[in-house]
Amino acid sequence: MLTHLACSLCGKTYDWNQVINTCTCGKPLLAQYDLSPSTLDRKALADREPTMWRYREVLPPCEAISLGEGFTPLHHAPRLGERWYVKDEGVNPTASFKARGMSAAVSMAKHLGVKVVAAPSAGNAAGAMAAYSAKASLEAHVFMPRDTPKAFIVECDYLGAHVNLIDGLINVCGLEVRKFIDSHPSNPPIFDLSTLKEPYRAEGKKTMGYELAEQMQWRLPDAIVYPTGGGTGLVGMWKAFDEMERMGWIGSDRPKMISVQAEGCAPIANAFAKGERFADEFPNAHTSASGLRVPKAIADFIMLDLIRASGGTAITVTDAEMVAATRELSSATGVFAAPEGGATLAAAQKLRDSGFLSSTDTVVLFNTGSGLKYLEAFV
Ligand SMILES: *Cc1c(COP(=O)(O)O)cnc(C)c1O
Ligand SMILES: [Zn+2]
Prior knowledge:
- It is a single chain.
- This protein is an alpha/beta fold.
- It has helices at about 100-110, 125-135, 150-160, 170-185, 200-215, 230-245, 265-275, 300-310, 320-335, 340-355, and strands at about 1-5, 15, 30-35, 75, 85-90, 115-120, 140-145, 160-165, 190, 225, 255-260, 315, 365.
- It has one domain (about 1-379): Rossmann fold (3-Layer(aba) Sandwich).
- The protein is globular and about 55 Å long.
């Protein structure tokens, strides 16, 4: 049962039954539950619906606005590595794992009486927010960089969202969202659904961690390779592992959490290499993997802490490596991956070559989106 929200940095607590963004200190709020082995017997899952809402006891208590998100396939990929797997998030509604986060966030926003939502996005979050807002009858305003791949822009438009194209990256779009909200006072106010600036997108994304455990018979892999932007996936999965341990579902072993970024936008990898807990804004960010074009992330310290605690690492790949690896991943598995998914293969191969990963390690690569939305990246 959801009990309260707690600040990820200063620990200050808040009532969950209110529309709220960040802590007064400016850092993300995370949902806290009262968890014990009696919360949910994992055996009960077998008969449940194949969506992320099968884990409803550890999700916010609201009516689910669902389009069938989650419970995505985990493909064994022996042509890539003996015990390598691809978790294919590209089959989610709106073709990315952003569906999980937006299903949870829009469901809670609706539950709390919100009427209008807004968010900056590199593409996939906007599409997902537009879709769930359409289903929930909320008005949605998306703010994307002008050079976002066309598929995302058309998708948002057809899903009924108000599309704003901005000359600047996602952080500039975030400032535009603030300006938009401040200049349109209303009751209830327009709610900002930016990554980790509201508590529930991470709750949706954490279901990837639950699913991975369930699909691997409650034995987590040795390593998870994850393309990192704002960090909801890393933060969410790490949280899921902790929650599952508290319910007695898994032990204390954790996968090495491996963050992959583009060489042209690598704030987390840079901070990791420098031993820092907070990341500087990455200057002149550029990469064709739009989901990785996040020069500054509010959850930087949460990611950096968990990567270190897991014995993982943070590395970069070039756009050329990413595109070549997307072709390799796709042709070796049958999953037409997003460039962000390709980035995980390029990174895992580097780490196997360097000996960081051994050839017998069980490795899960996250293909976070569909190649179909990124045709411009694959010329
Ligand atoms: C948003 C996005 C990412 C980054 O995800 P975070 O969980 O915010 O770090 C990676 N890949 C794709 C395809 C995305 O849309
Ligand atoms: Zn705080």
